[in-house]
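Reply to dn_fold:

You asked what the input looked like. This is it:
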Amino acid sequence: MISLQIKNIKQFMNQFLAGDAFDSFLLEQASISTYNTFTIDGRENRAFYTSEEWADGETRPYEFTQWKKIRSVCFDLIKGKRTPAAFQFVLHLIPEYTASLLEKGDTAVTPDQVKAFVLNIKYDGAALTLITGTAFHTFLMDKTPDALWDNAVRQFLTKRQLDYDET
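and this is what came back:
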């Protein structure tokens, strides 16, 4: 787990909310504090879908909503003349990328052992911080997946010219 403080918040938010840079993520949850505090549970809502749609992997391929599908809703809640008081997003890397990430390291951990590669994005009114995390289905001694995820996030930010300080 690492903590990264974003240097240029406006540039980051532009890529996060207006671009497709984060479309390889799923939204677990969001909390946005402006004139109200809006909370979004990113879990797909079974009651919304027919039984056929719920079972269809193409209609609803993940437990959580794809960021690209909900990004505009979050953007609408944040945009305006005033900066939000605070916000927090919990994102998961789309599961299809887990295997390729693990292949980059010397680890015996398999994709089915990894529950999620997590990215927490938190703004407290002054600073924007990203915190990485890895969730497993069971306890593992091997910390290689954590290091691989940390490095992947650093590379992701660097590739998009999003400067940060490691805190």
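Residues 3-166 form one domain.
Hope that clears it up.
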